[in-house]
Structure formats: C-alpha cells, structure tokens
Amino acid sequence: MSEKKEVYQPNPEFAKNARVKSMDEYRALVQSSEDDYEGFWGKMALEKLSWRRPFTSVLDESKAPFYRWFDEGELNVSEQCIDRHLKHSKNKTAILFEADNGESRAITYLELYRGVNKMANLIKDKYGIQKGDRVIIYMPMIPEAAFAMLACARVGAIHSVVFGGFSAEALRDRIEDTEASLIITADGAFRKGKPYMLKPAVDKALQMGCLSVKNVCVVKRNFEPIEIVEGRDTIYNDLIDNISSECEAEAMQSEDPLFLLYTSGSTGKPKGVKHSSAGYILWAQMTMEWVFDVKDNDTFWCTADIGWITGHTYIIYGPLAMGATTLMFEGVPTYPDAGRAWSIVQKHRVNQFYTAPTAIRMLHKVGESEPAKYDLSSLKVLGTVGEPIDPPAWKWYYEVVGGSRCSIVDTYWQTETGGHVISPLPGATPIKPGCATLPLPGIDAQILDESGNRCATNQGGKLCIVKPWPSMIRGVWGDDDRFISSYFSDIIKDGKSVYFTGDGAVYDEDGYITITGRVDDVVNVSGHRLGTAEIEAAINKSDKVAEVAAVGRAHEIKGESLFAFVVLKQSRAEDEKLKINTILKQEIGAFATCDDIVFVEALPKTRSGKIMRRILKSIAKGEKITQDISTLEDSSVVQNIIDIVANN
Ligand code: WTA
C-alpha cells in the first residue's frame, strides 16, 4: 500500500489566467478527445499549425504500428518555428543565450530567421545537402546549434544531434548508422571558465571509419587550435558573412522525418528513434502551452542539453513553435558558485524553469540556502523530468525555489513520445510530491497488467499508451523489426499491440499515476538513459574481462548509478578497476562510468546459462536475497558475491 501523499492545490492567482484553469476544464478536454479522437487531433492540428497544404486524413492505422498522421499535409517545421512569428514578433527575443562567462546575447526572431537561412544556404550550396540527407550535429550549447537544427529542418535534411559528452567511438557508431554526409560541430566551447574541445572527437571518429562523411563544418567558439583536414573541414565563421539570409523552405510532408535521436534500450546498440515533422511539432507546441503555460512576455528556461530529447522539444522546437523566448545556457549550474542557476533566474526574470531531479538534488545539497539570496519572484512554473523525483527534493523545489507559490509539473515522457505524456497542468491539477499525476488530454496512457487489463489502485503494472498519438516514435532507423519488438510486443489489449514504455507505474486512490522506474535493463544515471547491455558490451572490449553484468543501484544525487560485476580471465589485476572506467569513457562517455566495480569469480546463472540479474540487482542494493536460487547452476556463487561486495 502506498502511503497517502499530501496534496497541493494550484495557485488560484495563476489559475485565473491559465490556459487550462480547472480540473473541470481538464476533464472536458479529455472527454472531447475520448468522444472523437480524430476530431480532437484534427482540430488541434488545424488550429496550431500553419499548413502549406491541408491534410486529408487525420490518422491512418492501416500499417499499424507504423501509424501515419495528417497525410497529404505539407508544411515546414522551420517556418512553424520562425517565419510565421515574423509578422507580429520579429523583434521579440527568440533565443536568450547565457554564456559560461556570464555574458548574454538576445537573438530576435528576425535574427534567428537570418541565422537559420544562412546556415541552410550553406549546407545546401556548399555541402550539397538535400531533402532526406542525414546531418550529424555534435555541438555545444550555443545558438549556432539551434541554427543548425532548424537549417536542417528548412532544407528537409534529417538531423541527428549527438550529445557532446559522447566519446569519439559513440559518435562514430551514430554517424555510421545514419550514413550522414555532413557533420556540423564546433572547436569546442567553455565550461567552468575553461575551454573544452569537441572537434578532436570528430577527427578521431572519422579516422575510425564513417566513409559516408564528406564534409565537416566547424563553428569556432573557443578559438583553441584545431586540426583542419583540407578538402573535408571548413570554418563556418569564415563563410557565413557572405551568404544570403533568404532561403526558401522545402515543402515537407507531414510524415517526412524531422530528426533521429539515438537512445538506449534494454538490448543491443542504441536505437535511432525517428520523429515525424507535423505530429512532432504539433505536440511540442501544445505541451509548451498546456504544461508550462508560457505567456507572451515570459522567459522559459530548460536546462537540458540539446543532445537529449528534452533539449530538442523544450529548448528548441516547442518554445519556438509557440513563439516564446527560450533561454539557452552554455555553462553548468554550479559555476562560478552554487547560486548560478538562481542568479540566471534573477538576471533574466525567468518565468518557467525546467530541470532534472538529479540537478535539483545536487543544487539542494551544495547550495541549500542559495535560492534565498536571489529574487526568484518571477518564477511561475517549475518543471522536472527524466527520472522519478523523491519527495524531499520535490519539497525543497516547491518551498524554497518556488516559494510555495509555483506549481511543479513532474513531466513524464521519453525520447520515443516526443513530448510530455503524463503531467500536471499548472493551473488545474492538484499535485502530490513525486507524482506525475494524470495523462495529458489526447494521450491514452494506462497502467496495464500482463494480460492487457487496466490495473487496480495500488497494483503495480506496465505503463502503456493504448492509442497512437501524433508525436510518437515513427520507427527505429533502418530496423523495422526492432521497432516492433522493442515497443509493440509486450502487451496486447483488446487484440491490438499497444505501445509499452518500459516503465512500471501504479495508480493511487485518486487515479494518479506514480512512475516506479524502468522494468527493463535500462538505467537512468543523472537522467541520462543507458542500457546495461551497452555498458557490458563496452567493458567486454577489455581483453582481460571474461564476463560482466552491469546493474543500476540507487544513488543519492544521480538517482541511479552503475554497478558492474566483473569476472576476469586471469587473476585479479589491481588497476583493472580504473581501466574499466577508462574503457567506458572511451567507448561511451564520462557520464557512463561505474561507481561500483567488483571482481567476482563467477556470475549467478540459470542452468540454461542466463545471468540472473535480479539477484545482482538485490546484491547491488544491499537487499536480502529473497529470490529462489535453487534454479541456479551453482548457488554458492551468490554467497561468494555477497561476501566480496561486503568486503569491498
Ligand atoms: C524516465 C527523457 C519518472 C523514464 C524525457 C523514461 C521519468 C525515461 C520521468 C525516458 C518522470 C522521464 N518521472 N521517470 N517525470 N520522466 N522518466 O528517453 O524511465 O531520456 O522511460 O527521455 O526517463 O528517458 P529519455
């Protein structure tokens, strides 16, 4: 039984002017989507998007689960995000850039238009990029990253942003999977007052293969020395001034892919999640309006990196589609001190602040009294995303950062969902600490049991989305079978395969949904999603390692951390621990290293040779082993591992 949680009502002053003002209004929206699902979405798509050519059907289910939305419709996402705002808001700030060193720069919608068009002309004319081509973007958090994404959208190229924290090896894997012909990168940028580099990782990736790549476009940001490969590398800064700032946007079909974003699953290599143009941008905009309730004069700040889906939808596409001002921050929230985030809120009078629980826990730990030093009265809505938020962190966020005045929107969603799917609405939903609350109108999210029946109160189950929705994943790049097996093969409801998120969840007595975490082998380290299979594959590259199993364990700040059980081929090498993290840094990135590594003699396996991960998870968590270990090939292995972990 879950204990009863405190309930916090929306601030009545805020609710008065909110887009959705009450639970009655919320329920009416849900009802209208249930009464006429296609009618609901069709109306939204007509209202919110500017179509070049109208769509002729709302939803085509004939090739399920390869659903199609808004067929025959034509639009261009860069026009949604820029051109249509020029009439009334050309001098409004689109992107407010806050540099690591505290300097800031406001880019208006007109300037954004010019920046994007120039970049679009550059990639089209200089590098020959055409509709459907893939472009890798490996960039720091600078406005040119936004220009690059939107320029791809403008010419119809499919971008795939790779998070700057990924290593050369991980970058190579993504380049090769997409067969991109162009990489847009930067020399590097600044973090904590010092320059850091990106271009060397591109050079290294390209030395390891990536034969599809013809050009590398380098934005100079920190002006540190870099190597230039003649005929392949060109400098954006040298070319951009002489390029026209008019570039006609390509007409795109609703279903033309807008981008690929690689994410981890429970097996194999990361998957290239494919998103569409119309459905994605529609929901990006609608959730910005409903969940953050951003108003015309507001400044919205999402602290994510553009390399993750949160950065795509809530730094770039969502805010710009609705014509808002989006803040982009190059640095880290603890430099020059633990008050940096709050000083930025004060400086730019930020109205909506959106971050991850791991950041909240860290800011709480290192700077509990920092928020009190700043004027945070501009804040109206506080958001969290990426992992379950523990009630103590939630309360600190609510009381100390939000002054018990702001709604907290605990937004549950995934790379695959494109935008929020379960979240409170700040002017309507009574909230509870650590609870994502209710599905958004139009999203048929349900907690189901193995047979596809809706779970009862307090009965944990699998979180599924029963009906297709416009911003859903359209496929896994180059692997249709994997798309079906990853998302549509677990739960059948009423004879139909439904989308399974990979997360467990539970209803409380009010029908509110609390996410209990992944039920597959995906670990959320500081909100970064990692598959244990990927971690194991990387560690296995060491010729000293015979076998490895990695699991997640609870971590005070990171939410979860990685725990590796390693069997070495020969006697224990003392420095192997360090080397394992060196390998992980090299193969994936520094954020994917293990906090715990233990060397064991064997792993617990069933007689058919399957590693019993549940047992390892329990050991990593320090729990008593309650599982039946009689089916193990050699049950003494378990006690042996427990002893080693205890003495570690
Ligand atoms: C987890 C991030 C609890 C979940 C947008 C999901 C959450 C995974 C929440 C997706 C939340 C995201 N409460 N857990 N509010 N939001 N998650 O693809 O396990 O990087 O499946 O997308 O993060 O991570 P991804």
SSE inventory with pairings:
Blueprint: H1 12-16, H2 23-35, H3 37-48, E1 57-60, E2 68-71, E3 74-75, H4 77-81, H5 86-89, E4 93-98, E5 104-108, H6 109-126, E6 134-138, H7 143-155, E7 158-161, H8 168-178, E8 182-186, E9 188-191, E10 194-197, H9 199-207, E11 215-219, E12 233-235, H10 236-239, E13 252-253, E14 257-263, E15 271-276, H11 278-292, E16 299-302, H12 309-321, E17 325-329, H13 340-348, E18 352-355, H14 357-366, E19 381-384, H15 391-401, E20 407-410, E21 445-448, E22 461-465, E23 475-476, H16 480-487, E24 491-493, E25 496-507, E26 513-518, E27 522-525, E28 528-531, H17 532-539, E29 545-555, E30 559-568, H18 576-587, E31 596-599, H19 613-621, H20 636-647
Parallel strand pairs: 4-17, 6-7, 6-8, 7-14, 8-11, 11-12, 16-17, 16-18, 18-19, 19-20, 30-31
Antiparallel strand pairs: 1-2, 3-13, 4-5, 9-10, 14-15, 15-23, 21-22, 22-25, 24-25, 25-26, 27-28, 29-30
The structure holds 5'-O-[(S)-ethoxy(hydroxy)phosphoryl]adenosine.
Structure description:
The chain is α/β, with parallel strands linked by helices and 648 residues long. It has a domain at 522-647: ANL, C-terminal domain (GMP Synthetase, Chain A, domain 3). It has 20 helices and 31 strands. Helix 6 crosses helix 7 (143-155), helix 8 (168-178) packs across helix 9 and helix 11 (278-292) packs across helix 12 (309-321). The longest helix is centred in the first third of the chain and has 18 residues, at 109-126. The structure holds 5'-O-[(S)-ethoxy(hydroxy)phosphoryl]adenosine. 5'-O-[(S)-ethoxy(hydroxy)phosphoryl]adenosine (WTA) is lined by residues 263, 308-310, 385-388, 410-415, 436, 501-503, 515, 518, 524, 529.
